[in-house]
Write a structure and sequence with these properties.
This protein is mainly alpha-helical. The chain is built from twelve helices and three strands; from the N terminus they run ααααααααβββαααα.
């Protein structure tokens, strides 16, 4: 079957599943658990992602048109063995009143209620319940806690869970004083601590980890400066050393770095027999 025929077939199946609507609109009707399952099938990192972000990523994957991905999505949707009610159906008119009633029972801020309204107004009426909204807001608050802590600690978490941040160092090399900013990586926070500690406590823990990372990086900087400060360097002049060091990128790894091409070419040409 050609790619065009496969695409038409998948679109037809999706419209049946979503009660006549396309993928972009219909995907918003999946429950949180269903979105997570589909995300895991497609190898999306769902651990720290909320429903809104998952929907965005699923829409992007669908629109890219990869037939293997689309087939995986369609197979999962068919496995649910149900039709997701369209917002144009008669039952939709009662949905808003039910959602507003459930929201009035929920212990949440006004901003959280607005966010919940925007999400669940796209869902079927029978999917709206206090327990579902409570689970959703719990996940949302956990995600927001993650964002708030990173912001308060002035950095971000990488894919491995380490804390990435910028730090400015006051340095002196060959009689010249200047500042340089480097990207540093501090130890992250365990899942146990995330559950047990408040935002303020987590920020304090991260600050301690940052201080340790700064101290360790400072030792590497001083060792490098001592090497570059040698009176008679075998390969580089003072101006070359100073210029090279000041031009280091913030992401530079001090344990593994290289000279620029022009400088490296000059050193090899002058100190070896290579052509």
């Amino acid at each position: 079957m050609s790619k065009k025929k496969k695409q038409t077939k998948f679109n037809t199946i999706v419209k049946k599943i979503f009660d006549g609507d396309g993928f972009d609109e219909g995907i918003t009707r999946l429950e949180s658990e269903e979105l997570i399952e589909l995300g895991m099938i497609l190898q999306i990192k769902v651990g720290k992602v909320d429903d809104h972000e998952l929907i965005k990523q699923l829409r992007r994957l669908w629109s890219e048109g990869d037939m293997v991905v689309r087939q995986a999505i369609v197979e999962y949707l068919r496995s649910l063995d149900k039709v997701f009610e369209s917002s144009n159906s008669d039952a939709f008119s009662d949905k808003e009143s039910k959602l507003l009633e459930v929201l009035s029972q929920l212990d949440a801020t006004e901003d959280e209620k607005k966010m919940l309204y925007m999400h669940f107004i796209e869902q079927k009426a029978k999917k709206i319940s206090l327990s579902k909204l409570e689970r959703f807001i719990s996940r949302y608050r956990e995600q927001q806690k993650y964002v708030d802590v990173a912001e308060a600690a002035k950095g971000s978490f990488d894919e491995k869970g380490n804390f990435e941040f910028f730090h400015s160092f006051e340095l002196e090399l060959l009689g010249e004083s200047f500042k340089k900013i480097f990207v540093l990586y501090a130890q992250g926070i365990s899942d146990t601590l995330w559950q047990e500690k408040s935002k303020e406590e987590l920020v304090a823990i991260l600050q301690s980890h940052k201080d340790q990372a700064v101290e360790e990086f400072s030792l590497q900087l001083q060792a490098l400066i001592e090497e570059l400060s040698r009176k008679d360097h075998p390969y580089l002049s003072q101006s070359e050393r100073l210029g090279w060091f000041k031009a280091l990128e913030p992401e530079s790894n001090l344990e593994s770095f290289s000279l620029g091409f022009d400088l490296l070419y000059r050193v090899i040409k002058e100190h070896t027999q290579l052509h």
